[in-house]
Amino acid sequence: MDRLKTFEGIPHPFDRKKRMVVPSCLKVLRLRPERRFCRLGDLSSEYGWKHGSLIERLETQRKVKSEAFYKKKTATKKAKSQALKSVKLSGDDQAILEKCGYA
Fold first, then answer.
1. In the predicted model, what is the mean pLDDT of the chain?
2. Interval 46-53 mean pLDDT
3. Alpha-carbon distance 83 to 71, whole Å?
4. How far apart (Å, rounded) are the C-alpha atoms in residues 7 and 40?
5. I need a surface site. Which of 8, 28, 45, 103 has the fewest CB within 10 A?
């Protein structure tokens, strides 16, 4: 428990990383249908945690920034792929690339 780190929302270095789904941790797969469960935010707010609205506001800001980042990323990826298609290589350069395994 000494190494456990918990965050409210997604902190800075991780908000730009690709998100993964761990199937073995999904509630649908882990809990039997008749079992009861609760969410940590609901439990915390019942016992006096008052920052739920702040976290919601920060999450909406993060989602807007994330959407802009994603649009910029896809635009640059598309421009790069179009630039790679439009490049004309000489026969010598193409032979060197094929020999190295890049074409």
1. 89
2. 90
3. 18
4. 12
5. 28
